[in-house]
Protein: DUF2196 domain-containing protein
Amino acid sequence: MSEERPTAEELRQGLTVEIVQGDQNVRSTDREPIVGEVATIYEDDPMGPEVELKTGVVGHVQSIVHDE
Structure:
């Protein structure tokens, strides 16, 4: 499985993603991922595309959550 993050161009509103907030350590194994639906897509960033979720939380996308 690839660890490559999606780009801002691959994202769309309503897509369910996993994000980390800017003050969280992206590589930390004890972090709790935040999962939610994309409301606003801002820009690409080395830490992952920055988005705002419908809940108002802003963070960097780590992965797209696919329906099982």
